[in-house]
Amino acid sequence: MSTTTFGRSDDLFGHPRGLFVCFATEMWERFSFYGMKYLLVLYLVDHHLFSDGDALRLLGAYSALVYAMPLLGGIVSDRYLGQTQSVQIGAVLLVAGHFAMAFEGTPAMLGDGGNVIRDETAISTFYLALALIIVGVGLLKPNISTVVGQLYGDADPRRDGGFTIFYMGINVGAASAALLCGWLADAYGWSYGFGAAGIGMLLGLLIFNGGQSWLGGKGDAKNPELLAAKTSVSLNLLTLKQTIYAGCLVAVGLVWLMMQRPSDIGLLLPVVSAAFMAWFSWLLVTQCDNSERGKMTALFFLIVTSTVFWSMFEQSGGSMTLFAERATDLSLFGLNLTAAQFGSANAIFIIILSPLFALLWPALLSQNIEPTTPAKFGFGIMQVGLGFGALLIGINNPDAAGLVSAWWLVLAYFLHTSAELCLSPVGLSAVTKLSIARYVGVMMGAWFLASAYGSYLASELAIFFSSVEGSADGRLGAEGFSLLFTELLVYGVALGVAVLLVSPLIRRLMGNVR
Predict the structure, then answer these.
(1) b/e per residue, 160-184, with b = 16+ CB within 10 A?
(2) How far is it, in rounded angstroms, from Cα 504 to Cα 375?
(3) What separation in angstroms does the CA of 493 have from each of 80, 274, 374, 458?
(4) How far apart are CA 488 and CA 237, in angstroms?
(5) Beta carbons of 230 and 239 less than 8 angstroms apart
(6) CA–CA dist 212, 216 (Å, integer)
(7) Are strands 335-336 and 116-117 parallel, antiparallel or unpaired?
(8) Which of 399, 381, 397 is closest to 492 using CA atoms?
(9) Which among 4, 137, 209, 412 has most CB atoms closer than 10 A?
(10) What is the four-CA torsion angle of 474, 119, 262, 49, rounded to 10 degrees?
């Protein structure tokens, strides 16, 4: 009779050493990603003189593709490359993309006729940088988490603790990135802020490559012989591995073209959604019994509901960052911060609140008063709406200079983070519990597609209010911010209440799953 030993003499702090390789890799990947995210709209508006609408639409298209691309990255790694090589090529693309972002070129200027004169080489390089980052995230993001899971056996009680440590790495990277890169961009120039993000990702790549012995082969390709074989797709000129690498470069080229036409992504998303709806309808009718049909219907409701949530939550990198720059007194504790640095608030609050929520749900369950999963979604949507209510209070109570206190922005981020903790981890868990086992991967993909759709809708909502009466030259001003945040407050609270009202029905569809 065999026994399983969970701890080993070469473990570090009670966990496999490979966990800390993944922790550091993902921390620096998130450092690079968030170091760029909160600078993006400001860079486009202030340096290249994009209108608010054009900058926000580009942000929405970029965010949508960042959420959607891991679907393809997961397929490539599962079937062919394995997680390790997918992370490595993804990291290389990310390093290249972030360093390309550091080429800012000549600032745009207004010509005699009021037309904008831009450095076209810098703009083309910028689109290429975004394409490299999007494809790189698609390869790295889904696979580094998979490697963490493979470090633990199926019954290893340390698994949840390991993922908690890993998740903390994500948020340490996110918090430090917005603070450091935001400061560098303001103090020394855009290239320094973006360049720091590139250096962070390079460190992550070096750590991952240097720590392979600690990973013990976890994430390696399942069939390396297949990767070494020549493929008919390449007319037997390239191995499968080389063909995949070439395909990644082709993907970069296609995304580069797409980023120059961000409105087309808004047309593509409904087509993808319609295709999913058709497939899902077939699944319910032909592949599910009554119990499975109820659970899958409940899951579909949660996925659609999450789209509403993300359309509000993802205002952080767009309208909320512009609000911080244009309408907020950015001094806190005697320090003068930058608009981009306020993006760190979400990650900081995640670090503070996550342990409290981890204790809260079991405590409520012990008293038999824990909200159901649909009810948690309702509370999450209400809270994100109330976050915009905090900003409205600030707008209506400016200081003598007409600026809003930064504490209202901090309160908004606090409410948005507590809302995220009610919905995001709960939703990921629901996907694994409610999906038919053989389709859980597809449904997880649908969950992230909802995030992509919500991110694009977030930009479209802000764009609409950038053109309201009182907003000069398509720029969000005091009236535009007020109308947008009022709409989001009403939108969030009303839909949150609606979700709470139907939550008992959705709970019944879930059967024995809480």
Answers:
(1) eebeebbbbbbbbbbbbbbbbbbbb
(2) 8
(3) 45, 28, 15, 17
(4) 55
(5) yes
(6) 7
(7) unpaired
(8) 381
(9) 412
(10) -20
Query: Strand 328-329 vs strand 404-405: parallel, antiparallel, or unpaired?
Result: parallel
Distance CA 17, CA 2 (A): 24
pLDDT digits (tens, 9 = 90+) for 399-431: 998 999 999 999 999 999 999 999 988 887 888
Ranges of the chain with pLDDT below 70:
1-10, 12-13, 154-155, 160, 441, 468-474, 514
In sequence order, the 6+-apart residues with CB closer than 8 A to the CB of 14 are: 7, 158
- Look up residue 231 and give its two tokens: 């493929």
Distance from C-alpha of 432 to C-alpha of 82, rounded to nearest angstrom: 22
- Domains defined along the chain, listed by start: 13-260 (1.20.1250.20), 262-514 (1.20.1250.20)
- The per-residue pLDDT for range 106-153, each reduced to its tens digit, is 999 888 777 889 989 999 999 999 999 999 988 888 788 778 878 887
CB atoms within 10 A of CB 64: 27
* β-pair partners for 230: 239
pLDDT of residue 48: 92
* Beta pairing partners, 336: 331
- Parallel, antiparallel, or unpaired for β 328-329 and 335-336? unpaired
Here the tokens at position 215 are 């990973």
Query: Encoding tokens for residue 431?
Result: 């996907």
CA 3/CA 7 separation, integer angstroms = 12
Query: Going by DSSP bridges, is the β-strand pair 328-329/116-117 parallel, antiparallel, or unpaired?
Result: unpaired
Residues 6 or more apart in contact with residue 483 via CB below 8 angstroms? 465, 468
Backbone φ and ψ for 217, nearest 5 degrees, come out as: 80, 0
The C-alpha atoms of residue 139 and residue 417 are separated, in whole angstroms, by 27
Q: What angle do CA 498, 502, 505 make, to 5 degrees?
A: 175
3-state secondary structure of 185: helix
Determine if residue 333 is left, alpha or beta; phi over 0 gives left, psi from -120 to 50 gives alpha, anything else beta: left
Please give the pLDDT value at position 92. Answer: 94
Count of other CB atoms within 10 angstroms of residue 356 = 10
The whole-angstrom separation of Cα 185 and Cα 36 is: 10
pLDDT at 154: 63
Cα distance from N-terminal residue to C-terminal residue, the chain:
36
Can you give the pLDDT at residue 10? 56
Rounded-to-10 torsion of CA 121, 124, 129, 132: -130
Bridge partners of 331? Answer: 336
Strand partners, 335: 332
CB 325 within 8 A of CB 469: no
Does residue 404 sit in helix, strand or coil? strand
C-alpha closest to that of 343 among 329, 323, 362, 359: 323
The Cα-based distances of 139 to 58, 66, 327, 424, 454 in angstroms read 21, 10, 38, 22, 22
Sign of CA pseudo-dihedral 344, 348, 354, 360 = negative
Map residue 378 onto helix, strand or coil: helix
